[in-house]
Specification:
The chain is 33% helix and 13% strand. The protein is α/β, with parallel strands linked by helices. The relative contact order is 0.19.
Length: 494
């Protein structure tokens, strides 16, 4: 049920004439056309950070001047990625940490979080963030191929397997919920599983809502129409066309025989129209919050996020939550690109991190508005933040970090048992006896070692949203790798 609201009316008619939309909405699938917000249900929000986010820049060890400590070596070998050209300038390294990071303690682990991420710091301190360290999503360093592996949760996927199902789409099917895509493009993550063709997909549970305030087929309304002060506005061509098409399809719905090849087209138009009207009617009760509009709207350009598209996705998510029952939404998909920080890491990614986690920015603003209108959802919503791979241990010669393997994943929400899962700063990275030099600071091109498979994390999320679904959503997850001493069984509360 891929509903693309960017489609023009002319294209809709063209597709209808060819029978091209007969499969957009399976007729047995129903929506709740209620006008008031009903109780909320569990919601999994997946945020993909394309490009390989450097979470070792977000989460760092507090500076330590002792030359045999992990922290000393971390800051020495990463000095360049903090725009410090002399790795032996201890004063500069110490000042960089003290001026730009806030120290946090979780259990036995003490670490610093980038000051620009004030909302995340608060959530960590409130016990609502699981930091899943040394996770591995893809073992190669190719962006497009790694994204396919990440979103399908299948390490066997080739670089051309764009038609595969995604683990989010498979989870939606198992949970008997819809997956709402809030980004500009529907990602592979959203693809449902095709029953008879494993290498193809079925999008009958996907709703494309890249602009939640334009989710319906257009109808003429003088009170909201452009230039509505013109008394002749109702006679303009587009106004007449909107009224004519609505009347035409409405009349045909009562006339056309169910055996006609055009019957599915007419029925789809009626379902689309009622669906859109239901979304519009619900959102009429909720004026778009200025706090959210400021994240992306051109009229508030001085307040926009660095990535205004992500700001609109946050607004879309807010609206989708208000319509969660209408949408039958169990999963939401968002994305934010541009994390390939080969050079000038602070200027390249810190603004993006602030967009996500800063006070007054993306998730902060979403939570503040939901507290006012739908506070129950905050106890039922979890957010997974991850990229397709990590960055290397040491900075390169361009004040950045190159593609690596292991990384951290962040799982956020009131239902999350917050804490550190996996060694955040493994002493093995210092080298020495019995330590693989491929995963040490001193060897150029070294990776963070991947010790916990993404499948282990995905399985926990799957069972949280739809109990006992993990084996079908993430086959063979039980046999995938897990870091010694890590237990994810209590990661999420029911």
């Amino acid at each position: 049920m891929l509903l693309n609201k960017k489609q023009s009316r002319r294209n809709f008619l063209k597709m209808a004439a060819m029978g091209g939309i007969s499969g957009i909405i399976p007729l047995p699938l129903k929506f709740a056309f209620a006008s008031t917000l009903s109780s909320t249900s569990k919601l999994f929000v997946n945020l993909s950070l394309d490009g390989g986010p450097d979470f070792r820049h977000l989460l760092v060890p507090p500076y330590d001047s002792s030359s045999d400590s992990y922290a000393y070596n971390f800051w020495k070998y990463r000095a360049s990625s903090h725009n410090i050209n002399n790795p032996d300038d201890t004063n500069a390294l110490k000042s960089r940490y003290e001026n730009n990071y806030t120290t946090v303690s979780l259990g036995d682990t003490q670490f610093g979080v980038l000051n620009k991420c004030g909302w995340l710091i608060k959530q960590i301190n409130n016990g609502n963030v699981a930091i899943l360290n040394n996770t591995v999503l893809s073992t190669n360093r190719d962006h497009s191929h790694s994204i396919i592996i990440q979103e399908s949760a299948q390490t066997s996927a080739s670089s051309h397997d764009l038609e595969r199902s995604g683990w989010g789409g498979r989870l939606a099917q198992q949970a008997n919920k819809n997956l709402v895509s809030l980004s500009q493009n529907v990602r592979l993550f959203c693809n449902g599983q095709h029953i008879s063709a494993p290498l193809k997909h079925d999008n009958s549970r996907v709703i494309d809502m890249s602009d939640s305030r334009k989710a319906s087929l257009q109808e003429f309304d003088l009170t909201t129409a452009d230039n509505n002060t013109d008394p002749y506005r109702i006679y303009w061509d587009d106004a007449k066309m909107k009224r004519m098409l609505k009347s035409y399809y409405s009349a045909k719905a009562n006339e056309i025989d169910s055996s006609s090849p055009y019957y599915p087209i007419i029925q789809n138009e009626q379902i689309l129209r009622k669906f859109g009207q239901s979304i519009d009617n619900r959102l009429k009760n909720y004026t778009e919050p200025s706090r959210l509009k400021a994240l992306y709207d051109y009229d508030f350009s001085s307040e926009n996020l660095n990535n205004a598209s992500f700001g609109q996705q946050i607004r879309n998510l807010y609206d989708a939550i208000l319509c969660q029952d209408v949408l039958n939404m169990g999963i939401a998909s968002l994305d934010y690109g541009g994390w390939d920080s080969h050079k000038r890491t602070p200027s390249w990614i810190e603004g993006k991190l602030q967009d996500l986690f800063g006070s007054g920015q993306g998730f902060y603003s979403l939570y503040k508005e939901l507290e006012l209108v739908a506070p129950d959802i905050l106890d039922k919503m979890i957010i997974l933040v991850s990229g397709e791979f990590g960055r290397q241990l040491a900075s390169n010669g361009s004040n950045g970090t190159d593609h690596g393997t292991g990384n951290s994943m962040l799982l956020i929400g009131n239902s999350v048992k917050g804490g550190v899962y996996g060694d955040m700063f493994p002493l093995s990275e210092l080298g020495g006896n019995n330590n693989d030099p491929q995963y040490t600071f001193a060897q150029s091109g070294s990776d963070i070692k991947g010790l916990t498979s993404m499948q282990q994390v995905y399985a926990q999320i799957s069972n949280w949203l739809s109990p006992t679904s993990a084996n079908l959503v993430v086959p063979n997850w039980n046999s995938s790798i897990m870091e010694k001493g890590v237990d994810l069984n209590l990661l999420l509360s029911s």
